[in-house]
Amino acid sequence: MKKENYIRLEFPSKSVNEAFARAAVACFAAQTDPTLEELSDIKTAVSEAVTNCIVHAYPQSIGKICLRAAILEDNSVEIVVKDWGRGIDDIEKAREPMFTTGGDERSGMGFTIMESFMDELRVRSAPGRGTTVTMRRKISLRGKRAG
Amino acid sequence: MVNVTASGGDGRLRLSLSGELDHHSARDGMTRIGRALDDYMPRECVIDMSGLSFMDSSGIALILRVYRRMRECGGRLLIEAPQNQPRRVLDASGIDRVVKIQDTVKGADK
After folding, report:
1. Which residues of chain B have pLDDT under 70?
2. ipTM of model
3. Which fold has domain B2-102?
4. Is the CB of residue B53 less than 8 Å from the CB of residue B77?
């Protein structure tokens, strides 16, 4: 699908960047005239995806995270979060609610929340080579845009 | 950043959270909460979320850790007044199966 607009961010896997990443995507996605709920859902999903990179992809080191966001011609927002870290051995298992390898500081609900808050979630990963999470959320057309 | 304010006494502890609760802020938040639990040793702990504008699943992990601590000592945990975004995360996690969530701050409607 044709991209109407896009951004690309690259940042190190420092936890202080979680707030920056979700705020940056929310600012960009605001162009689609979302409701507050749609915008906060996107922020939450971005926070989960970026946190996964920081906690799981690079557990003992600082690595690179690439975040791309695009507004598509059907007024949906597509977000791609990519890392070059440890990768996921069993994606199906990782997507199960409450499954975590992160100890009691993690709830194991990250993918569940991404799935709940976005319309589509795709996860591609290769052990030792990294993970790419692609999410899409359709933004409802409101007011003048809907007419 | 998440701010934690502890108040109470007489077996009760109110933890008022404000700001944003994510993985970055959760560790510091849990340290402060752990200290408050040690100081007050409550039978009932209330997490007042009315000032919390954002929370992701790191907040669920934090609540579960408080829940386990309260359960270990026979106490109970209650969550109060979450704003819309944290409420949606709480609902998606299904945590209301183990922790009671009250939509308003106790006494606020009086």
Report:
1. 106-110
2. 0.90
3. Transcription Regulator spoIIAA (3.30.750)
4. no
